[in-house]
Amino acid sequence: MTATIVAVWALYVFAVHTFAGQRRVATPLVESKVAPFARGTMEVVWHAYSWNLLVCAAAIGWHAWAPQPTLVWFVTLQMAGIGAVFLWLGPKRLGSGFGLPQWVLIGPLVVALALLDAPRLGTSLLLLALAGLHVAWVLGVAWPAPSRRAMPAYLIGHPEGDGVGRLPTAMVALVLTGLALAVWLTVPGARMVVVVVFGARGLFGFVERQLRPETAKTPYAVLSRIFYSPLCLFIAALAFSSR
C-alpha cells in the first residue's frame, strides 16, 4: 500500500509541474524575447523534466505491483538530486527558498521513497520536519513569507499584520514533535490521530475558499491548495499505511 501512495504523490508532483507550471513557466518562456535557440532548449528541458517525473511515478507504481528495489533507489537518487537543485537555485536566483518551491513537494517524496519499507519512520521524520519549521517561525524565520509582517497572509490567510503568534506556533511544534515520537514508538492510537487530524486538514483545504472567502485574495489561498493541503493528505495516507 505504501508504494501505491508514494506513486500517487509522485503523480501529483508531475501534475503540479506540468499543468500548474505550464501557465507560470512554460507559456511565458515560449512567449519571451529570449534568443530562439536558448528558448527552444529551455522548452525542451521543461518538457523533458515533465516526462522524467511521469516515468518516475510509473516506476514507483511498477514497484508497488512487482517489487523492484534497485529501481526504487535509482528514482530516489534522481528525485533527491532534482530537489537539491531547486533548493539551491531558489535562494541563489530569486532570493528565497520558496522562489522555486518544487522541492517542498519533492522533499517528502524523497523521504517516503528512501523509507518505503519503513513508512512509520518516514511519517515520523516528516512530522519532525514540520515541527522544525514551526520552531524556525518561533525563532524569527518568516519563510515562505518575505517578512514576519506578511506571514499571516502566507500561512493562515489573514491580512498582513504583526506576524504569527509565537506561543501558538510553539505549541503546534510541541504537538507535532509529540506525534512524531508517538508514531515512531507505536503508541496506541497515535497513528490514527495523525490520519484523522492531517486528513481533515487536507480535505478542509479544498473547501476553504467557500468557508473562508476572505482568504481568496491572499497568497495562502494558492499555497494551501497546491502545497499545504495535499501534503497533509500525503502524511495522513503515509501514516495510515504504516500499520
Integer tally of domains:
2
Assign an overall shape: globular
Helix content: over 70%
- Our measurement of the CA-to-CA distance between the termini, rounded to an integer number of angstroms, reads 10 Å
Order of helices and strands: HHHHHHHHHH
Average pLDDT: 88
Name a few traits of the molecule.
0% strand, de novo design (two linked rop proteins), mainly alpha, 243 residues, globular, 75% helix
What features would you describe in this structure?
This protein is mostly helical and 243 residues long. The chain has 2 domains: 1-117, de novo design (two linked rop proteins) (Up-down Bundle); 118-243, no CATH class. Helices cover 75% and strands 0% of the residues. Helix 1 packs antiparallel against helix 4 (102-114), helix 5 packs antiparallel against helix 7 and helix 8 runs antiparallel to helix 10 (219-240). The longest helix is centred in the first third of the chain and has 30 residues, at 36-65. The radius of gyration is 19 Å and the shape is globular. The N and C termini lie close together (10 Å). The model has no long low-confidence stretch (mean pLDDT 88).
Condensed summary:
By secondary structure, the protein is mainly α. 75% of the residues lie in helices and 0% in strands.
What's the topology here?
Elements: H1 2-30, H2 36-65, H3 69-94, H4 102-114, H5 119-138, H6 151-155, H7 166-184, H8 190-204, H9 208-211, H10 219-240
Helix pairs in contact: 1-2, 1-4, 1-10, 2-3, 3-4, 4-5, 5-7, 8-10
